[in-house]
Amino acid sequence: MLRLASLLSFFMLFSTARAQQPAYFMFGEKQFEGVHIYSMIQDHALNYWFATNEGLFKHDGYTFKLVECDDMLGRSVFGFVINSKGVIYCHNLNQQVFQLKNGKMSLVFELPDKGADLRLLINKNDELLISSSRNLYLLNRDNTLMSSGDVKETGGFYYGNPFITSNNQTLLHQIDSDTLLILENGKMRSTAMKMIGSTESFNNLNLTFFELDGVCYAASRDTRNLFRLNLSNSTLQYERTIPWEDPNESVRFVEVGNKLWVSSNAFGLRVIDQHLKDLFQGEKCFQNLLISY
């Protein structure tokens, strides 16, 4: 996570020391001209790392350095995550996952499947979860593969975004089905969910999971229905539907500070509190801005 206070403090010092230079110099206005920045993260030594379509850049507050890896296929990099020891992970479009440690970039894993939509997560044990649309892989702190999901090649199944609960369980929905995969203590199990209070069909369901006040919920990206998820009996209890201008538009759900942000490819976002109530009188905020993931 970016440390805003340290960033602002550094910005003030930098601006004072170099008053004759434009303030945006520290953000690499010239360095990144024509370059797409996909992700940004700060390490424990307060260096900044930029994932771009032209590779991986490190900024120590004074200079930018392109950090390369001989095993890397393709230059675009995405999806920073960091563990408690300050080790950073990212991936590219060629099913490769990389580690940034002691200023060096190294290849730690290549996905054997060709699933798209790669996601990286760090659980409470500092284990690395690598999720694709076809499988889930778990690496320990030494980057050794501990387990992987049971991929059924002939079934044509696809999986949604993984989520790690406060109890350190990883949840994964098998899209267009009632199947919920649960990864716990390195072991994968599946269960059939039951829906209560809604006629929504599992045949067209793509669930995203989140927690508010320690309660686990599931959200349908297409219908914007919110469900309370009871893991003890695998039930989805319908709670409410979030209104949206275009009912056919798929939305994104992101938990931010015990609130749920709901956005799409349109401008603005809606904010839901921990009681699933609308903030801002149900209106969108940042209505003139496109909010990315």
Write out key terms for the chains shown.
293 residues; mainly beta; five-stranded mixed β-sheet; four-stranded antiparallel β-sheet; globular; disordered N terminus
Describe what this molecule looks like in 3D:
The structure is a single chain. It contains 1 helix and 24 strands. The protein has 293 residues and is mostly beta strands. The chain has a 5-stranded mixed beta sheet, with no helix packed on it. A hairpin with a 5-residue loop joins strand 1 and strand 2.
Give the H and E element order: HEEEEEEEEEEEEEEEEEEEEEEEE
Major β-sheet profile: 5 strands, mixed
Care to count the β-strands? 24
Low-confidence stretches: 1-26
Which value, in Å, is the CA radius of gyration? 21 Å
Helix/sheet category: mainly beta
Shape: globular
Mean pLDDT over the full residue set: 84
How many helix segments? 1
Residues in helices, as a percent range: under 10%
Strand order, largest beta sheet: 17-21-20-19-18
**What percent of residues are in strands?**
35-45%
User: How far apart are the first and last residues' alpha carbons, in Å?
Assistant: 14 Å
Summarize the structure.
This protein has 293 residues and is mostly beta strands. 5% of the residues lie in helices and 40% in strands. It contains one helix and 24 strands.
